[in-house]
Amino acid sequence: MLSKIKKQLHEANYKLTPQRESTVLVLLENEKDHLSAEEIYMLVKLKTPEIGLATVYRTLEMLTDLKILDKVSFNDGLARYDMRKEGAKHFHHHLLCLECGSIEEIEDDLLGEVEVIVEHDFHFKVKDHRLTFHGVCQKCQNK
Amino acid sequence: MLSKIKKQLHEANYKLTPQRESTVLVLLENEKDHLSAEEIYMLVKLKTPEIGLATVYRTLEMLTDLKILDKVSFNDGLARYDMRKEGAKHFHHHLLCLECGSIEEIEDDLLGEVEVIVEHDFHFKVKDHRLTFHGVCQKCQNK
DNA sequence: ATGCCTGCAAATGTTTTGCACGCCG
DNA sequence: CGGCGTGCAAAACATTTGCAGGCAT
C-alpha cells in the first residue's frame, strides 16, 4: 500500500520525504474518517513534530493531483480528504446522517446503469461521480 | 414564482424587504447558473446598490433554511446556490465538465431504484441526495 | 418603544503564497 | 552549485459576527 504510493511519487518525480511519508501513513491509518487538513496536520504532528501546516496542504494537493486522494466536501465549509480505493473503478458513495453528522462509506457500484443513461441521453462522457445520500442512519432511527 | 416565495417568507415570519426581493429575483433570473454569494452580490448591487454582502449571505442562509435554495459545492472552494425546482421530489443532478468547467443540470429521476437498495441494504432512511457526474461535455468532446 | 433588518467593519477560519534556509545529488 | 522541499509568517479569500442605526408597526 505504502510502497505502491512511494512508487507513484517517484514516477512523478516527487521525493518521499519524512513529512510526506508521515502524512500518507496518517491517511492510510484513518482511511474511513474523511479528515480535514487541520485534523491531518494534528495527527501528523504526533509522529513528526517538525512539520508545518503548509506542508500538509502541499502534500494533500500533490496526492490529489496524483489521484491517490480525493478532495470532498460535505457542505460544512471545509475540504476533507478521502483515499481512493485501489482497484476501485469508481469513487465510492457516502451516506451522510443529518442528525448525528456521521458519514458512512458504501462501495457497491450503484450507478452502472445510470451512467449508461447519462452517456446516451445527454452525450456526456462520464469519468467519475460524486454521490452522497442525505438521510438518517440506523442508529439515529432507533432513537 | 416570486409570489409563492413571498408567501413562504411570510409564513415563516420573515419580511420581504427590498434587499431580499432583489436577491430572490437575481436567483430566479439566473436559475441555471450556480452562482456564488459574491456573484449574487454583484448582480443584486446593480438593481439595489444599497446592499451589503453580509445581507446577501444572511438572505441566502434564510432561503436555504426554508428549503427554497440548496447550497452546493463543486470542490472549487466556495459555496454555490441552486434554486429548488418547484414540485421536484428530489434534488436534481449535475454534469460537471472537467475541461471547460460548465455545469449542466439534469432533472430525470435516476436514483429511484438506487435509493430502494440503499434503504434496504444499509438501513439508511434517505431524505435527499447529491449526485454530480464528472466527465466531458458534448461540446468538448467535439473539439 | 419594540423588534426585525440593515450596512459597515472587524473578526474568524481555511487555504495559499513569499521567502529564506537546509539538504542532497 | 542548483533545485526541490520545508517551516514560518503573512497574505488572500470566503464567510460570520458585533454593533449602532433605521424603519415599520
Question: What does this molecule look like?
Answer:
Chains A, B: Its cofactor is Mn(2+); Fe(2+); Zn(2+). Chain A has about 140 residues and is α+β, with helices and mostly antiparallel strands. Chain A has 2 domains: about 1-85, Orthogonal Bundle (Arc Repressor Mutant, subunit A); about 90-143, Ferric-uptake regulator, C-terminal dimerisarion domain (Dna Ligase, domain 1). Chain A has 6 helices and 5 strands; from the N terminus they run H-H-H-H-E-E-E-E-H-E-H. In chain A, the strands form 2 sheets. A 3-stranded mixed β-sheet of chain A has the order 4-3-5. Chain A has a two-stranded antiparallel ribbon with strand order 1-2. The longest helix of chain A is centred in the middle third of the chain and has 13 residues, at about 55-65. The mean pLDDT of chain A is about 90. Chain A binds a DNA duplex (25 and 25 nucleotides) through helix 4.
